[in-house]
Design a protein that fits this description.
TPM_dom; transmembrane; single chain; 6-stranded mixed sheet; elongated; 44% helix; TPM domain-containing protein
């Protein structure tokens, strides 16, 4: 009887190991995440980006990938991105990924979320990430833009799907300001009530029956006009995309820009 119990415990332990220890997400063992075919990054920048991408890939069970090209004959970066991902997914046996694709020849960039990332990095969040990285790309700081893509996407993916991660209520400075205001209000209320109650009012020493207004004068003093310059909107080119499916039938969230 004891031998049977031991065997059952051993079988349960094996099942827990192969099922991911009760719900832990496991990322595929991917050797390469940066495919810089356009030669935009130095060796040191690639090594640093690989390390950052690997760290956040393990955190979410979703691989962060980068693919660049300098194909002047390319018509649609969204289609090229889909072809690259289909090949990558089959070779690595992995479906969960965040892929940033860029064609330096056409100045196009496209960010997509596959698998679980299609929900955790939806179209709205993709646009928010693009808002952050497009200025860096316009300055030619591609390493900085790619690094920002990983860290910002990873932070957004920690929020519940459907929530705007840039909502002011999630900002640390806003939460600190609210706490300070509440604290100041409570202290002020306590100080106000600690000095005793005031029983006199403005009408306590005012004789309304024997007081009258004898004259009234309205005099114009001056007029002030203020002018404000409305800033023009700046940034990258128009957006395109918004998610879809690859040629291999894999659906994704996404969005693209000119830069």
């Amino acid at each position: 009887m004891r031998d049977i119990q031991v065997k059952w415990l051993l079988m349960i332990s094996i099942l827990l190991v192969f099922s991911g220890l009760g719900g832990f997400t496991v990322s595929a063992a991917v050797d390469q995440r940066v495919y810089d075919n356009a030669d935009l990054l130095s060796e040191s920048e690639i090594a640093e980006l690989e390390a950052v991408a690997a760290e956040h890939s393990r955190k979410h069970g979703t691989d962060f990938l980068f693919w660049t090209t300098a194909d002047e004959q390319s018509l649609y970066i969204q289609d090229d991105m889909g072809d690259f991902y289909d090949t990558w997914a089959e070779e690595n046996n992995q479906e969960n990924a965040v892929l940033l694709s860029m064609n330096i020849a056409t100045r196009d960039v496209y960010l997509a979320g596959f698998g679980t990332a299609e929900r955790t990095l939806d179209n709205q969040r993709v646009d928010l990430v693009l808002d952050r990285i497009i200025p860096e790309m316009q300055r030619g700081d591609y390493a900085g833009a790619f690094h920002e893509t990983v860290t910002t996407s990873s932070r957004y993916m920690e929020f519940r799907p459907g929530v705007n991660p840039e909502n002011i209520f999630f900002k640390t400075w806003f939460q600190v300001a609210i706490a300070l205001l509440l604290g100041a209000g409570i202290v002020g209320f306590m100080l106000y009530n600690s000095g005793g109650r005031v029983t006199t009012t403005p009408t306590t020493y005012f004789d309304d029956d024997h007081t009258k207004v004898t004259s009234k004068l309205d005099q114009f003093r001056n007029k002030t006009i203020s002018r404000r310059k409305v800033p023009k909107k700046s940034g990258g080119g128009g957006g395109f995309g918004g998610g879809g499916s690859t040629g291999g039938g894999r659906s994704f969230s996404g969005g693209g820009r000119k830069f």
